[in-house]
Design a protein that fits this description.
With 445 residues, the protein is α/β, with parallel strands linked by helices. 33% of the residues lie in helices and 19% in strands. It has 12 helices and 16 strands. Helix 5 crosses helix 11.
Length: 445
């Protein structure tokens, strides 16, 4: 039996996800558009909060060629050159917008920005706020969004289907924590659900980030791109406990941290691209038959490290390590999705009125391997562009959307298994070697 249309929720725009990309899109949309932002858990349970290192910016025009080349080289030159140029050229304006909104970044004694450097960057061009850059930006955006009367938040609500007909998206079907389902009809549907870390045994992501947008895109024929381009972060705090892995930011290596093997020997250049460092660590673990290597920060005192990296310093201390003196065990873990729902440089997908932003989207800016601290910038730049495209769209949308039978949807556990299999099969189809190396762990990623 179809759901009665008078029971649908109607809004101009629905955004799925409460991280930087979703929030900034909402803030950049015109204030006369009603926006409903839903999220799977609580508003702050987004991977954006976990971003430690920082956000890149073009310091001056003199750095453009170097920044462009660093991004392309890290991505193995499989990047979309147009997307890379747009991101870099837009960076200063986006950062200024953040500052105007109240975002704080660390400064030097004279008040100028304190730029740091991470792997594969040849210049210091990364802005940061201690080791909580993502939290600083996301908290500020959320605070501003809560003041907007046109933005409504709904938590503990999961998107379980697209409402679409003839390759036009009309909305989404949702389920809350009590198992109640409903339909949201909107002119614009924006996917900002993050990546797929929740499908992996070892990941820096929140466990509920399970790639729902990708599974539904596969079900409905929305074009995906490079689903096998999944970044493994070299250094997460080693633990035998289950759950999310604590990331030790690349910026620690940017400030002088080195990697050591079981014999206490340094074995790689720590500021190479992430995939290169990860492979070096994997080879070292194979050589010694271990499941971790070690990281130490000899260039700072305990007091300096506690000030520059307060969360990382405390997390290591809680495990009994002083990162400036001790060899802290670290191991690679799944971190970031470079592929995803294919979009143009304005966030438009292959389905009309359906957009994707942030880690969910793939506009090709990252190529095969993301350059450190480009993720927050990419999310902000292309979220803003998606909002601008939506604001300018004057097309007439067909209002004859299909009926929805809520009783036709399987139970949560059946649906989650189906979604997982869809995504894993696509990764395996694209790259059997990656699947075998990182995804085929006793039936679990």
């Amino acid at each position: 039996m179809a759901m009665k249309k008078e029971n649908y929720i109607y809004t101009n725009t629905v955004i799925v996800g409460s991280g930087v990309a979703g929030l900034f899109t909402a803030l950049c949309l015109p204030s006369n558009k009603d926006i409903l932002l839903i999220t799977k858990e609580e508003l702050k349970d987004a991977d954006s909060y976990l971003a430690q290192g920082g956000v890149c910016v073009l310091k001056s025009i003199d750095d453009f060629d170097c920044y462009y080349e660093d991004t392309m080289k890290a991505g193995h030159y499989e990047n979309n050159p147009d997307a890379v140029r747009v991101m870099i050229e837009s960076s200063q304006d986006v950062i200024q917008t953040l500052v105007d909104l109240g975002v704080e970044f660390d400064t030097e004694d004279g008040g100028t920005f304190d730029y740091t450097r991470e792997g594969a960057h040849r210049q210091n061009r990364i802005l940061h706020y201690k080791d909580e850059t993502g939290k600083q930006i996301t908290d500020t955006l959320l605070s501003m969004a809560r003041k907007r009367r046109n933005i409504t938040f709904v938590t503990q609500t999961t998107m379980i289907d697209f409402i679409e007909k003839d390759n036009e998206c009309y909305g989404i079907v949702c389920e809350d924590d009590f198992g109640e389902m409903g339909a949201i009809i909107a002119r614009n549907i924006i996917l900002a659900t993050g990546g797929i870390g929740g499908l992996f045994l070892n990941s820096t992501n929140f466990p509920h980030i399970t790639g729902d947008s990708f599974a539904l895109s596969l079900k409905h024929g929305v074009e995906l791109q490079d689903m096998n381009y999944i970044q493994i972060h070299p250094t997460t705090l080693y633990s035998k406990k289950k759950g999310r892995r604590f990331l030790i930011s690349e910026s620690v290596r940017g400030e002088g941290a080195i990697l050591l093997n079981e014999n206490g020997e340094r074995f790689t250049d720590e500021l190479q691209p992430r995939d290169v460092v990860t492979n070096a660590i994997v080879e070292e673990m194979k050589k010694f038959g271990t499941d971790h290597v070690y990281l130490t920060l000899p260039t700072m005192t305990s007091e300096e490290a506690a000030k520059r990296f307060p969360n990382i310093f405390e997390a290591c201390k809680d495990e009994g390590y002083d990162i400036t003196r001790d060899a802290v065990p670290v191991t690679p873990a799944q971190h970031y999705m470079m592929g995803g729902v294919k979009t143009d440089i304005n966030g438009a997908t292959s389905m009309k009125y359906l957009y994707a932003v942030g880690e969910t989207a793939c506009n090709g800016v990252h190529g095969k391997n993301r350059l450190a601290s480009n993720s927050l910038l990419e999310s902000l730049v292309f979220a803003q562009r998606a909002a601008e495209l939506i604001a300018l769209d004057k097309s007439v949308k067909n209002d004859k959307f299909p009926d929805i039978d809520l009783k036709s949807y399987p139970k949560k556990e059946v649906r989650e298994k189906e979604f997982r299999e869809l995504i894993m099969n696509e990764i395996r189809r694209k790259d059997e070697d990656f699947y075998a190396k990182w995804c085929n762990n006793e039936g679990e990623c």
